[in-house]
Amino acid sequence: MWVYQKSLEYPARVRGPNPRLAKVVITQYGGPDGELAASLRYLTQRYTMPIPQAKAALTDIGTEELAHMEIVATLVYQLIRDASIEDIKRAGLDSYYADHDKALYFVNASGAPWVASYIQSKGDPITDIHENMAAEEKARSTYEYLMQLSDDPDATETLRFLWQREIVHFQRFGEVLDLLHDYYSRQHVFEMKGYDPDKFRQS
Amino acid sequence: MDPRQKELLMRIMELEFACIDLDLYLATHPDDTRALQDFKMRSQELMNAKMEYELAYGPLLNYGFGTNPGRTWQWIDEPWPWEINWRRSGT
């Protein structure tokens, strides 16, 4: 089960209303390399992992991604909460407003809704961990583009925290990959020397 | 949110972040006794800070994992995490 804690993982902050920035940051909420995709990807892959370290890493990183989703939601919410209709129109957020007002919805920066095909759960543990390492790289790149686009130093600080976490998660998945390679190269069947299966076979 | 509450919550967030990061490290290094020692220390500090916070301001966790010292159901007390203004000058 999951338990909710009434605090953010990082004190997300913004300087003031900025619907233009909200329009792009929302891609880390419901976009292809966003936090919803990340958490669901890891939490659904963990069932078929063969080693305990992989099950733990996917559970814990998947759970941390849920906390990141909440941080991104907080950024978007605070960036649009006090924005005027004029600001929203000027920022090009009017099409989003028409469908969602100032509510949070899972879309990418151009408004396309979240789809499950953003993620994969392949069953082959090596394949899945490679997918996750690529996902962390893609999310890192996205945070870099968002920091370039941000004109709010407080929001940039929060984006930087999330960016750093991608790097840590990439490292952990790399270690999981190593452990999986160890696991698969290890011998699992032990043959007895001099054992001849035909010797005492009943005819 | 009063400054004392905010300060204590920030302390909890800092300790918890240390625990999260150590937790992830320990997933792939379960035999690292130094990291485990670090984790145990931070986690104890975190538990103490949470207890102090909950006794003063109500539960941080739902489903009975937190403490509700008041006479009413304090879980519903605002602000919720996304409503807090963490700007350094803010309230």
List keywords for this structure.
heterodimer; A: 8 helices; B: 91 residues; 2 helices; 0% strand; globular; Manganese catalase family protein (chain A); Ferritin-like (chain A); Mn_catalase_dom (chain A); calcium (chain A); metal ion binding (chain A)
Describe the overall structure:
The mean pLDDT of chain A is 96. Chain A contains eight helices and no strands. In chain A, 41% of the residues are buried. Chain A is elongated. In chain A, 60% of the residues lie in helices and 0% in strands. Chain B is mainly alpha-helical. Chain B has one domain. Chain B has two helices and no strands. In chain B, helix 1 packs antiparallel against helix 2. The radius of gyration of chain B is 15 Å and the shape is globular. At the A-B interface, helix 4 and helix 8 of A face helix 1 of B.
Tally of extended strands of chain B? 0
H/I helix tally of chain B:
2
The low-pLDDT segments of chain A are none
Measured by residues with Cβ under 8 Å of the partner chain's Cβ, the largest interface is:
A-B, 31 and 30 residues
What is the N-to-C order of secondary-structure elements of chain B (H for helix, E for strand)? Answer: HH
Which word captures the global form of chain B? globular
Main beta sheet of chain B: none
Strand residues, percent of chain A = under 5%
Rounded to an integer, what's the Rg of chain B over CA atoms? 15 Å
Structural class of chain B: mainly alpha
What is the β-strand count of chain A?
Answer: 0
Number of helices of chain A: 8
**Shape summary of chain A:** elongated
Percent in strands of chain B: under 5%
Mean pLDDT of chain B: 95
Domain Protein CotJB (chain B): 7-83
Keywords (chain B): Capsid protein, Virion
Protein name (chain B): Spore coat protein CotJB
Organism (chain B): Candidatus Fermentithermobacillus carboniphilus
